[in-house]
Amino acid sequence: MARDTDDLWQSFARTGEQLASEEDYEHGYSREVRQDLRRCLAFHCGDELYGLSITELAEITKPLSTTPVPRTAEFVIGVGNIRGSVLPVIDLARRLRLPPRPITPASRVLVVRHAGELHGLVVDAVRDVVSIPPEAFEPPPGALAGARAGFIAALARHGGEILILLDLAVLLAPQDFVRADVGGRRA
Amino acid sequence: MSVRVLLVEDSRAMRAYVSAILEAHEFEVEEAENGFEALRMLPREHFDVVVADVNMPDVNGIELTRFVRRGPRQAEIAVLVISTDAAAHDVERAMTAGANGFLPKPFTEQQLLEAIANARSRVQASA
Amino acid sequence: MSTTRSNTEFVPEAQEVVEEFSRRLLELEAAQRSGGEDPEALNAAFRAIHSLKGLAGLFAAGPIATLSHSLENALDGLRLGRVALTPATLDVLFEAVETFAALLAAFEHGDAGPEIEPLLARVAGLLGAPEPERATTELPGIDDSILGVLTEYEEHRLRENVRLGRSLFRVHASFDLLAIDVGIEGLKGKLKEFGEVITYLPSADASAEDRIDLDILLGSNAELALVAEALAAEGVSVHPLVRDTGTAPRPRTAATPASEPTRTGGVIVEAIEPGDELDVGAPEVSLRSLSRTVRVDLARLDHLMNLIGELGIVHATIGGSAEGLRRRGAAPDLARQLSGELRTMSRQIALLQQAILDVRMVPLGQVFDKLARVVRKLGRDAGKEIRLNITGEETELDKLIVEELSDPLMHMIRNCIDHGIESRSERLAAGKAAAGRIDLRAFQRGSRVVIEVEDDGRGMDLRQIRDSALRRGLLSEDDLREMTPQQVIELVFMPGFTTRATPGALSGRGVGMDVVKTNISRLSGLIDVNTAVGRGTVFSITLPVTLAIIQALVVQTAGQTFCIPLNSVIESLMVSPSDIRTVEGAEVITLHGKTLPLCHLARLFELRTGTRATLARNYVIVVGLAQHRIGLVVDDLLGQHDVVIKSLGAALRQVPGIAGATELGGGRTVLLIDVAALVEEAVGRDGTLASVEASHGP
Questions:
Q1: Which chains touch C (3 or more CB pairs under 8 A)?
Q2: Which structural domain, as residue segments, surrounds residue A34?
Q3: Which of A68, A71, C183, C534 lies most in the core, judged by the most C-beta atoms within 10 Å?
């Protein structure tokens, strides 16, 4: 399912909307390139298919070695280092309050840029980059999957599947990183 | 206390050769691969002997000798210049600038040790 | 000397030299085709052969030595202009490259190499070629003290430059010893744009002992003013090369030009007619830069620093591999050579690091000047006459630290004027000078900078401090009774503390010494106070010189590695369990007659200690924040390292007790402990400030 990440990365770094052509046919669009398609990286975490806009993505790597950071929330795996930049690496499944997932050869770290800083999200597998037209997006239904609802920015229908688009601002909210029972510094 | 030598020589193999000889004879050797490096080390560290190639780019051995002779502890540092004997003119100027000895390349272990000993004895005699 | 060692080193080194020789010949050929000369390439070719000859002699490589000796003579003749460089000459030289390659291959395999006699004859033939007709050029007005230290070749180049109608300049530059290599490289590049650098004349008589002055002889077709302007940088000045150069007092770069200067873009340039250049005693052109600065975002410098940090890590990794190689005993010569080269690399990295740190450094004078204005104004407002003595304003600190210092120093000065210095009548009654004195001193002590603010005022009155603390309900009578005088004095650093019943006109603006303390702590600084009633008070701030790179103590506890900034470490010691006592449930040890509370790092961070919970020995790292001291207990000390601090990012920045991360060898990311936060936590947990430093002195 997951293609070699390097190829994948190169493919979307290199190009454009051509990558969307398969999907275009599937949806009956002409090959004429639409300017309003949103390109998203589709990836697996648990049983669901998630998506992140590729504009939020800096890099995809294989799991990297991390140093645990004391006093942080359970979902914080630690800090990793990518070419000299230190970044927090989190376990996406735990962050979404899903059961813990094992690291497998397909596991990847999505390095995302949020609020000017890099963060690593460990996911089960990366699937593909897809182009999604605006009309395929839906707001997150209020009644959906209680605990996770807050992390969802939107849903997108794509080739008969539903892509859950994550809201990085919520996912990476700094106040959640410090463990709740560590009150921070005394005033 | 062992004798501290600053070896200024731009040829790597030559530095390795001279260092190996001197270290085998309990000298403490610091290497500089050009005149600038030597200039940086001279005022900051204590050296008893400076062994310098005369013919180096940028800052040559004559200039280095003059620099040592104008610095603090000028009379205490023995300066031995090494060069091919073809460069007679340069060696002569190095000696005028205050070098205590000259060793033509190529030289043997024994010749190097003798030349250093002679240069040091000249310094001690004049001190 | 063992011969095996020689052989392994000789061939690769010699091959490199021959390649260099070949490259230079190609450059010469290119220059010749375009009808020009390339003295630099010619000299480099000579030097290559000179090195080869030395090498071959040392390692008894007979034919190579013979051939290079003969070539050296020919090349020496070429570079000194005694032999003309023709296409035929180049043919011979290129042939030598081929022959050397064959000879080296033969030497390596112990074979007999090719015959060199025919080539030797051709090389000798070069020397027999008619000498180009060139009259010896006179060198008027150049002092013997300069001529006397030139090599024959340099003197020849000097003459050549004169013959070609170039002007000779003496470029005077001054370099920090630490950064001379870096500085020279930059200057060299610029100089080459203007002509030929003939030589560098170093002199030790620089204004400061950690600097070196260099006179650089430059031959150039450009006009002095043009060269001068292009080279305008701190400490670089350009002069015509004149007779009195060697004997005249060395010009100071800050010297005022003799005639009216014209200012263009912040650089003082004095017009000099080309004809004036060889005049004896021509006025010096001072180019001391006044506003030749480039504004650089600190983030860019941080980025550079990170890159250097990376380089350092690569270096450490190679060092580890070299050490492994050495332990295995394989290829000891190579291992030795490698470690020598690593030392060189380490020196260069250190220089690079220093050079960048230097860029970030600004003199404290920037802040002190501001304070001088504040003192004048506040003194007038308070009706007190105050003399401010500033020393050490040239002391440099990282730009960020200097900026952060401005507020704390302002508060301290306000305090001096408001609380410290008495009114005129009080002073006269006490037999003091009418004018109060404030000394603002800065000086470097090791890797730290100390800033002292001293006044000759009334000093601190312990009774008044105690009363004030009681009145404000900060401490109880019992608490106060237990405290030593020094501890009482340090109460002034507590939030909400002031000795005035009503806020003073000056310092009563809702900020006090606690803010000063917090700001100083943030900079990893310590603050101390000393006072004598009737004589005055001294506040001393001790700061690290720089924040970007720090020295850290690397420790290990519960299997995890951490760094502790060395500038907050006061000492480290080994303790056995029997040294540790318990006071009201808290572990303490007695150190220098004082009780030191202990905090186990593993417990603070809730690290899984496994079965290693009880070690026969522990290490205690005594750390301090402002006036507090605690002992951090760890399993092991791994050593000291210079580390580049990296931010953890917004998400993890607020984790208490962790200040950042850094990289140690092997790509490991290691957390840097926030000593200030841990000390604050410890102090808070123990309830009062006093119990931390409760004295059990003899």
A1: A, B
A2: 5-175
A3: C183
Closest alpha carbon within chain C to B41: C177
Tell me the mean pLDDT in the region A62-85: 88
Chain C residue numbers touching A81 (CB-CB < 8 A): 661, 663, 667, 669
More confident residue, C289 or C366: C366
B10 touches chain C (CB under 8 A): yes
Q: Residue C301, Cβ neighbours under 10 Å: how many?
A: 16
In chain B, where are the structural domains located?
4-126
- pLDDT tens digits, residue range C74-111? 998 899 888 888 888 888 998 898 899 888 888 888 78
The verdict on residue A185 lying in a domain is no
Choose from A65, A66, A69 for mutation: most chain C CBs within 10 A. A69
Note whether residue A59 is domain-resident: yes
> Do the domain assignments include residue A180?
no
Region C153-159 average pLDDT: 86
Please tell me which of A92-101, C287-296, C524-533 the model is most confident about, judged by mean pLDDT: A92-101
Cα-Cα end-to-end distance for chain B: 19
pLDDT for position C245: 36
A177 touches chain C (CB under 8 A): yes
> Strands (DSSP E) along B11-56, which ranges?
28-32, 49-53
Mean of the pLDDT values across residues C469-474?
78
Residues of A in contact with C606 (CB under 8 A): 70-71
| Nearest residue, CB atoms, C51 vs list B11, B31, B39 | B11
Q: Tell me whether residue A49 is in a domain.
A: yes
Contact C55 B60 (CB under 8 A): no
Q: What is the ipTM of this complex?
A: 0.83
Query: What CATH number is associated with residue A112?
Result: 2.40.50.180
Helix (H, G, I), strand (E, B) or coil at C620: strand
Looking at the structure of chain A, the number of domains it has is: 1
Beta strands in chain A (DSSP E): 38-45, 48-53, 57-61, 76-82, 85-91, 108-114, 117-123, 125-132, 137-138, 152-158, 161-166
Q: Which tokens sit at C657?
A: 């007790």
Please write the tens of the pLDDT for every residue from B25-40: 989 998 888 888 888 7
pTM over 0.95? The answer is no
C337 lies within 8 A of chain B by CB: yes
Fold adopted by B4-126: Rossmann fold (3.40.50)
Nearest to C288 by CA among C174, C136, C450, C132: C174
HSE of C43 in the Cβ direction (CA atoms, 13 Å)?
A: 18
Instruction: Test C51 with B10 for CB contact under 8 angstroms.
Output: yes
In tens, the pLDDT along C395-415 reads: 888 887 888 788 889 888 988
CB within 8 Å of chain C, chain A residues 115-144: 115, 117-119
Q: Please, are residues A119 and A172 in contact by the beta-carbon 8 Å criterion?
A: yes
